[in-house]
Design goal:
Layout (H helix, E strand, L loop, with lengths): L1 H9 L11 H9 L13 H22 L1 H9 L1 H55 L2 H8 L7 H12 L3 E5 L5 E4 L13 H9 L3 E7 L1 H7 L3 H5 L1 E2 L13 E2 L2 E11 L5 E10 L4 H14 L9 E6 L2 E5 L16 H9 L4 E7 L2 E11 L5 E10 L1 H51 L15 H90 L3 H31 L8 E3 L1 H18 L3 E6 L7 E3 L1 H17 L5 E12 L2 E10 L21 H7 L4 H12 L4 E5 L5 E11 L16 H11 L4 E5 L3 H13 L3 E5 L2 H10 L4 E4 L8 H9 L9 E5 L4 H10 L3 E4 L4 H11 L4
Parallel strand pairs: 14-16, 20-21, 20-22, 22-23, 23-24
Antiparallel strand pairs: 1-2, 1-7, 3-6, 4-5, 6-7, 8-9, 8-12, 10-11, 11-12, 13-15, 15-19, 16-17, 17-19, 18-19
Length: 882
Amino acid sequence: MILLVYSIFGLLDTLSPDNCNPAQIVLFFITKDIDGFDIADQNPRESIITSSFGFIDRLKRRFHRSIRLRLSLLALTPVLVFPLLAMVMLVLGNRYFEQIMQHKAASDLAIGQNYLQYLQTNVAVDVKSLADSSRIQRLLNGTATDVALEEVLASRQANIGLDFLAVLDLDGRVIAASEVLKRGTQYVNLSVVAQARRGESAVDGLEVLAAEQLAALSTSLPARADISVLKTEHAAPSGMTEERRGLLAIAAVPVRDAKGACQAIMVGGLLLNRHDGFVDYIARAASAAGLMPVSAPSAATLFLGDLRISTSVRLASGERAIGTRVSSEVREAVLERGGQWIKRAFVVDQWAMTAYEPVSDVQGQRIGMLYSGFPEAPFSAIRWQLLGILLVIMALVAAFASWLSWRLMRSIVDPLQRLEVAMRSVSRGQMDTRIGAMPGEDELARLANLFDRLLDTISEQTSDLRVWAKELDHKVIERTSDLEAANLALAAARDVAETANRLKSAFLANMSHEIRTPMNAIIGLTHLLHKEVSDPAQRERLTKINGAAQHLLSLINDILDLSKIEADKLQLTLAPFQIDQVFDAVLTMLGERVRRQNLQIKAVIAPELAGVLEGDALRLKQILLNFVGNAVKFTEHGGITLRATLAESHGEYVLARFEVIDTGIGIAPSSTSRLFSAFEQADSSTTRRYGGTGLGLAISKRLAVMMGGEVGVESQPGQGSTFWFSARFKRLAVLAEAICQSEPELSASEVEKQVILQGIGRKILLAEDNPINREVALYLLADVGLAVDVAEDGQQAVELAGQCFYDLILMDVQMPIMDGLEATRRIRHLPGYESIPILALTANAFDEDAELCRAAGMNAHIAKPVDPEALFKALQQWLPPI
């Protein structure tokens, strides 16, 4: 009961009205008349639960508020824990004794096994000594005739203690026998004889023979083997009342002539039925091994099947338990399944610690069992005596420990109560209260002294604290004012930074729009003039103008990319691709420059990177174009190698390393650290000679970092350079052919022809406020035979769309009166224009501009300056088919 109460105290934190289990309900029902509660109330179950939880709540509060209660329980812990320790000791001690007895039984069984093997070996040795006897060989050969061979065998049989002896010819017929069988008679069919005849070597083992076979060996054997089956408790049901078979240890040894040839077989054996000497020897040897101070003799038994044919186990009458049977559980485990049994079992009329093992004949067939064991009762008695003594000792120790802990607890709790009383007085404002002197010089006495001194100090410092409090209030007000000022300054700085960032983005967007608008006119007019002019010199000048314009456009794109990266607005687009296709695209785009400079360029891809990967192929190509473009720029002779290798592989993800190796001018090591910074190059001389802004490498570095990699360079002046970067991709389990199944791209001329065919009878609307850009667009559209109406602002575009039906609309975004976005939204509400293609043709080139166009209802976004080929591809894609 004490243990139950202690357990409840330990579990109080986990009990609440929301957690109710049967054990708690039982506690509630046995708690009667708590605070006026009575089971006889009208609603007993509800009242019991409510009152009991109130009782538990009070116990919880008392447990947490009373150190005396906790220390009391701690002092009683040895006594309270004793039942649990006693239970553990009983369980473990009982298991330990069980293991000792099992080990003893297994050891006794090993003794029996060894002795059974010794018995078989001894029979084999005796028979072999006769087979090797020169006198018997002379009698067999006829060189000695002074005595009959049968008399010699009978004499030797009596001397060595065997039950039968015989000499057989190689056909298994009797040459001479100690008794019964006469010369020329076919001998009993024994497995050892058959094996000895076949292998011409000695064979020994156990065999089971029927009563008729035993009679043929010796006249005394059938009577010794005959055993009446006794009714045995726990044995398997059986209708057998008598066992007449015999279990024999038999040996057969070849008799060899002077030349070593086998001329006969010597066979002899021993009947193990009722062989008291065999089992008594095992029992004595096992008993001599001893186990604790217990006088309980061991027993041994030899079974034929499940029947005891030789045993030292005694019945209640004192006779040997010959004819009793083993329990059905042991029979099934050992005889039928061939396992070993080492545990408790019912033996004849009592429980014993037993060990059984199957016995096999010379052919390996299970024919019986060997048993060794001892009665369990004596060992159980001493086991409980020892455990009882240990429990008494533990109980005395626990009681003494609890008594000592209780005395120590009182020496702690009583001073603590004095401390509590004094502190309660102080808390009520009685600052003159003191604890006074305590007996002893321990920590509690020193604590009381220190507490009194603390109260003295508190009284002295109370007045000082009031003064310090006023000063502290003044300082807090000052610090609060300073903090508010700092917060305002920080907010202002943040607003300035955000405003500057917005102004920067707006400036870049406006500059991009303002530069792209005239660039559109330059590139468009250059394209038109190039088609109209036939003079080679003029065409070359137009090509140079176009190249300069494209270079300026590339510079604008680099500045925009860098701005997007710094504003964290550039997003990677993941899609399946193949590295070899990206390499082919790079080599194709730079092939003309490479051929003009008479350079050799080659691409090498590691086999581990073959197949389909997932990543941003466009940004990968952008970095490679920058690296290879720089290599072409700074290499005057020699060659360039573009290489991809596998750096790491983790499951389905790979880290690829890309290298661009050239034989160019090289870079000084002191300059390599600045290469990947924005607007930086190796030195000013290369800027003047080769040109460039230094943005390409900075953008490449940030793109590589976004793809989970890094960049680097290895170079020496005059020895070329190796620019490298790494990127992480996901390997896809798809065939590479799946990437290549899309239709091949048409050439620029083929696209124009396709647009001309699709534009027959089609009418489009061009909304463009810039006159030059209108002129360029009209010329480009006229080249492909399209009929075009022009609107100079968004409002005109809406009016024209309401008056006439158009197959496609090209819409600028920034226009006076009404912008292209609002015009698109209004056109979408016109009848028949729900699905008409509307393409944005604008200098607003940011990704967010493209998203705004799509959100307004446009189908695609074409950034200015418009590449004629890109325009024609868009028309070929979006013009409705004929």
